[in-house]
Amino acid sequence: MSRSALRQAPGLATAESAGDGRVDPAAVPSQARSVTWRTVLGVFKLRIGVLIMVSALAGMAIVPAGSASALQVLVLALSVLLASAAAGAFNQFVEADSDRLMARTRQRAFASGLLPRNGAWLLGITALFALAVAAAAWWVNGLAAAFVAAGALTYAVVYTLGLKRRTPWNIVIGGAAGSFAVLAGAAAADPHLGPLAWGLALVLLLWTPPHFWSLAIANEDQYRAAGVPMLPVVVGAQRTARIVHAHAIALVAVSLLLVALGAGWIVLAGALIGGTHFLRKTQALVRRQSRSTAMAAFFASMVQLAVLLLAVVLDAAMR
Question: Which string of b and e fits 77-115 if b means at least 16 CB within 10 Å?
């Protein structure tokens, strides 16, 4: 990224003193320069981390004859959350330069210069990841730990470093991060993974593309300005909307198939309620591509997944 681009980016001062792509903290507006606990927590993307943690717990719950102690449940949940947090922080650390070019992300701590991109942060992120994997290996089992590691590495290395700037289909493979969380939970309950665990993992794999592409349609201009080849930038919003709707149909179909694999009626109800809501919003997106319809589809995807995962947990509690 050139210095002139930094000068022209709205809301950014020049970064003359850094000389290496970092924003000079002294150039950040004074009202934005104080570091708070919210600043630090924001680096770790804890909202999506909590959703991934719940996915892992649902993966544990969906195993029919699985068993795990209360300690193992707690350790697995925290391991997935911490590994996800490490991957999220690494993403922000690496993507700081391009984040500065997008209104949605330029206020992130590394992008704004509020927190320094230095070796200490990179070491801390690595240590957090190692702690999460080691805890899962020690208190749960090796397979669960391997899936915890695979999920974080898929997002941090495969998606962030490998695919994001190379292909518009980056998030299709990057979405496997959520699938690995489900498999980590299932492996904690029973290392011999059954069809329900794989089915729910497939749901997470199919969920991520329409979820993220809806957001990408809403922010198409920003991704284009940052030079990130997200699908709407490459094929246009109209075609992307049709692809989002097709993925949503596949997602709902697989969610319903969980019942054929042994899930109960509560899962069926959750798949129908959440899926119908999501499909209504993606159909509206096909009819009209606007920021409002794209964001409605984005939020509907989170409702769909939350309802389904809650149904999986309730179904397990009713057994």
Answer: bbbbbbbbbbbbbbbbbbbbbbbbbbeebbbbbbbbbbb
